[in-house]
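Ligand: flavin mononucleotide. Inputs:
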Amino acid sequence: MKLLGVSASPSADSKTLLALTAAVAHVRWRYDDVATDVINLRDLDMAFCDGRDPDRYEGDTRVVIDTVVAADALIIATPMYRGSYTGILKNLVDVLPNDALQGKPVGLIASGGSDHHFLAVEHQLKPLIGFFYGHPIPGAVYLNNDHFAAGRLADPGIIDRLAQLVDAVVEFARRVPRTVVGADRPTITRKTLAET
Ligand SMILES: Cc1cc2nc3c(=O)[nH]c(=O)nc-3n(C[C@H](O)[C@H](O)[C@H](O)COP(=O)(O)O)c2cc1C
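Predicted complex:
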C-alpha cells in the first residue's frame, strides 16, 4: 500500500507540515508494509490550472498528479486561509483528474490561528474529497498555535489523535476495496469554447 501525505502550506516554517510529518512518521514506525511519501507543495513548481486536460501537464505538476493518482490512501494537511483551505491546495485539486481520489481514504489535518474555523473541515474539505469520490475519514485533526511550543508539536493529545487518524486511514484502505464508491459519477467533460 502507498500512503501519500500532501502539505498545502505555503509557509517556510510550517506548523501544518510538522503535523503531517508526525502523522506520516507514525505510519513508518507502525506499518512495515505501507510505503510512504510526502509532497510539500511549497517546494514544487506547480503550474496554475489553465483548463487543459490533466494529461497535458508537465514537470513538477505532472509528477504530483501521477503521485496522487498512484497513491492508495492520502493524508492532506492545510492551514486555514480566510476560513478555508489554501490556494495551493485549490490549485492542486484543479489540476487533478476527476478520478484521482476515487475510492481512496483521505485523512484530513488542518491548522488555524485559533479554533475559530475548525468547522471548515466539515464544510470545505470534506465536500472537496467527496467531489472526487474519495472517502474523508472521520476524526480529522485540527491544530491551533497552542499545540506547538519551541518550534515543535507539543500537545500529547494531538500527537495521539494524529496517530489514530492515520491508523484509521490505513485500516480503511486495507478493508474497503477502491471499487466501493456507490453510484457511477456523472460524466464531467472539459470543453474549450472552440469545442462547443
Ligand atoms: C493569508 C492567511 C490567512 C489566514 N486565515 C486564517 C483563518 O481564516 N482562520 C484561522 O484560524 N487562521 C488563519 N490564518 C492563520 C493560519 O491558518 C495559521 O497560522 C496556520 O497554523 C498556519 O499554518 P502554517 O504554519 O503551516 O503556515 C491565516 C494565515 C494567513 C497567512
